Amino acid sequence: MRILIIGSGGREHALAWKLSKRPDVTEIFVAPGNGGTASVAVNVPIKDSDIQGLVDFAKEKAVDLVVPGPELPLTLGVVDAMQKAGIACFGPSAACAKLEGSKSFAKEVMQKAGVPTAAAGVFTSRAEAEVFVKEHGAPLVVKADGLAAGKGVIVAMTMEEVRAALDLMFEKNAFGEASSTVLIEEFLEGEEVSLLSFCDGKTALPLPSAQDHKAVFDNDKGPNTGGMGAYSPAPILPDSELSAMADIVARPILTEMARRGTPFKGILYAGLMMTKDGPKVLEYNVRFGDPECQPLLMRLKSDLADIMLHCIEGTLDAVSLDIEERSALGVVLTAEGYPGSYPKGMPISGIDRAEALEGVQVFQAGTKAEDGHILANGGRVLCVTALGEDLKKAQARAYEGLALLSMEHSQFRTDIGKKGLKRLQLV
Ligand code: AMP
Ligand code: GLY
Question: Which portions of this protein are annotated as coiled-coil regions (predicted)?
């Protein structure tokens, strides 16, 4: 079997690592890949937005399965284009990827499907938005409708912050096209957790829960990032409650998308806020989260390509997931300054030593391999991911691995997993 993975992050390294374990896989390509994917696959210099280039490459190499990692190629219709060319591609069509690509579309689908979510208004002019804001008062959450690399959401605790957010979106045009439409939402309080489900258009099969850490500094301080670490399972959503939660936040979406004639296939990622009134959906992603993917794939014992093919063929009802009992936890090492500006090119050493620890994998993200060395080449550089008998042991093992790495001008959070341990009363 030949596989093409699209993307260049830690998620894509984890996908390549997991898919390479399948005995009949002869070749894996990653476009464009990173220093880590180069060690388990062949990197090909095609951008994730070059849909025609990706289709041509997949045809030329007679690829059997294409696995897009990030949202951009999905919203650009890579699944539709591959399908047209007769190539199996795991993920949602462009029509379904709109669940991530447009927050107003997602809100409308949720409302139609009866999925619990924050009340919201949708605005295309500042004047209308001002009327809503005056009526509701702070705190409010202001969201750019389109893709904004995780930066288009502003939690505004005061009226001043709400106005500054509206300035940014309508006046300063900070997010370009993405903020020509703006959502203003009710502020929800609670603990966040992610539920990712494999979907085949009709059936949703949930993976265990995971928790991301979006803020750059310890105790959720500082600006939001792509994700500074993740672990699974999250005690706030135990395995015993996964299917009941999928009934609330995933299956109704599948029913609604099928009713619209655009059945959802791929990963449906529900970002949840566990409020005192029950779970509410903050957002949908239409792909694996990064870094949630890294601990989740370390726990998935089933053959991943097999599940993906069942999703594409619409036969997921025949599948059950084999999940590792142990917990998994990943800590992201970033370049200093991220998510602002940061230096590049620092050499990284100790990856082999960290991976020599039992149950530890280092998934690389912003790296490149040059003359036998691994150099930092992005904001999120790598994610040290470890299995452990329980969350506390997985955490200890991941930080033990991280301590064996060295890179100048690096930073990381020291409290990944802390909320889960608190809930288990282990800290
Ligand atoms: P999103 O991209 O919509 O998940 O938003 C990014 C982050 O903003 C979430 O992970 C939450 O921490 C926060 N957030 C989004 N919507 C709300 C809301 N309605 N109330 C409180 N926080 C929110
Ligand atoms: N970790 C959150 C995301 O991938 O969007």
Answer: none
> Using an 8 Å Cβ cutoff, are 248 and 242 in contact?
no
Peptide bond between residue 23 and the one before it cis (omega within 30 degrees of 0): no
Cα–chain center distance at 250: 16
**30 burial level (CB within 10 Å; 0-12, 13-18, 19+):** buried
Which ligand does the CA of 156 lie closest to? 1
Would you say how long the chain is, in residues? 427
Rounded to an integer, what distance in angstroms lies between the CA atom of residue 215 and that of residue 184? 21
CA–CA distance, 425 with 427 (Å, rounded to integer): 6
Residues 6+ apart with CB under 8 A from 22: 1, 303, 304, 305, 306
- Report the SS3 class of residue 101: helix
Tokens representing residue 262 in the block: 């655009």
CA of 369 to the centre of ligand 1 (A): 36
Q: Helix, strand, coil shares of the chain as percentages rounded to 5?
A: 35, 30, 35
DSSP assignment string, 242-305: HHHHHHHHTHHHHHHHHHTT---EEEEEEEEEEETTEEEEEEEESS--TTTHHHHHHHB-S-HH
Would the CB of 76 count as within 6 Å of ligand 1? no
| Distance from C-alpha of 326 to C-alpha of 293, rounded to nearest angstrom | 16
* Atom 5 in ligand 2: residue holding the nearest Cα: 289
Q: pLDDT truncated to tens, each residue of the chain (427 aa)?
A: 999 999 999 999 999 999 999 999 999 999 999 999 999 999 999 999 999 999 999 999 999 999 999 999 999 999 999 999 999 999 999 999 999 999 999 999 999 999 999 999 999 888 888 888 888 888 999 998 888 776 788 899 999 999 999 988 887 777 777 778 899 999 999 999 999 999 999 999 999 999 999 999 999 999 889 999 999 999 999 999 999 999 999 999 999 999 999 999 999 999 999 999 999 999 999 999 999 999 999 999 999 999 999 999 999 999 999 999 999 999 999 999 999 999 999 999 999 999 999 999 999 999 999 998 999 999 999 999 999 999 999 999 999 999 999 999 999 999 999 999 999 987 6
Report CA(60)–ligand 2 centroid distance (Å): 32
Closest CA to 365 of 269, 267, 289, 291: 291
